[in-house]
Structure formats: structure tokens, C-alpha cells
Recover the amino acids of this structure.
């Protein structure tokens, strides 16, 4: 199990990303728009820099929903390789079959 503080920090980041998503997208569009004057584009970049760092989507860490483990994460299942193997062996994941050859 991961530290509770690490998983809580990640949840807080997810909330901030959702809160500032619209504002961030608008400012990014303004900063990239070549039709606007340079001053307006620069002002948009400065406003973007003033937003909280944790509101950037790239700061979210993929973590296992079961254990909170940050490594060995399968996006499709939203869990780590270890939790996937355990739940698969117990037969709790539909469609997952243990391979043998």
C-alpha cells in the first residue's frame, strides 16, 4: 500500500486540474494564437504562469485504484501489475484468464 499522503496529494491535483481546465485551455489558445498581437499573447502566458502548478494535467501521477502503487500501472484496468495478478488469480476480473502453454 502506498502512503496515504501520496494518494491524497494526487487526488488534490486531480481536483485542481478539473477546476482550472477551462481557464487553462482558454489561456493556452490565446497564447498560441498567431493572429493576436504579441502583447496579448505574452499577457496570456503570464496569466498561465500564475495558475497553480498542480493544476497542470502533467502533474497527475497514474496510481493503482486498489493499492495506490505508482509503478507497473495498466491504464486499461487502472491498477498495478501486482493487484491485477492477485485479482485475476482469484477470478475477480471478468475476461482475464491465466495463460498456460
Amino acid at each position: 500500500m502506498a502512503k496515504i499522503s501520496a494518494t491524497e496529494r494526487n487526488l488534490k491535483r486531480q481536483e485542481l486540474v478539473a477546476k482550472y481546465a477551462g481557464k487553462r485551455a482558454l489561456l493556452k489558445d490565446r497564447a498560441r494564437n498567431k493572429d493576436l498581437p504579441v502583447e496579448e499573447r505574452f499577457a496570456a502566458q503570464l496569466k498561465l504562469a500564475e495558475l497553480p502548478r498542480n493544476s497542470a494535467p502533467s502533474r497527475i501521477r497514474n496510481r493503482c485504484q486498489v493499492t495506490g502503487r505508482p509503478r507497473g500501472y495498466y491504464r486499461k484496468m487502472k491498477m498495478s501489475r501486482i493487484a491485477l495478478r492477485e485479482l485475476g488469480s482469484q477470478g475477480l476480473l471478468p475476461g482475464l484468464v491465466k495463460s498456460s502453454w
